Amino acid sequence: MVLSLRTVCSYKDLRVKQYGDTCKKVFDATSRSYKHVGNDGRVSSTPEPRLVEGVVDEALPNTLFRVKTEDGETILAYLAGKMRLHRIRVLVGDKVSLQLDPYGGRARIVRRA
Asked: Quick one: which of 10, 64, 66, 103 has the fewest CB in 10 Å?
């Protein structure tokens, strides 16, 4: 659920902390919870995912892939639900867009370029 910053609370009740390069982590004193404010000013309870480009190195069972990103890091990634639903095939050597998990888990392949 996405809310505007004004509907969450007043500005005097907020404590702001920078959270990565995509959004800020805001503590709302009235509801005693953290909110994430994106670059466009929208407020949500989860941080925005980072998008990264990469090339598929290896195809594994159960739609898992080993992807090498532009900066040389190898990441384990899975196919997004919409790509499974529409049966979009991803082969070794394809260039793909990944959404990185903010907590360090597997990446999600969201687009085949």
From this structure: 103
Residue 111 CA, distance from chain mean position? 13
Q: Which two tokens stand for residue 24?
A: 């800020």
Q: Can you give the pTM of this predicted structure?
A: 0.62
DSSP track, 11-51: GGGEEEEEETTTEEEEEETTTTEEEEEETTSEEESSPPPEE
Give the model confidence (pLDDT) of 46-75 as tens digits: 666 788 999 999 999 998 999 999 999 999
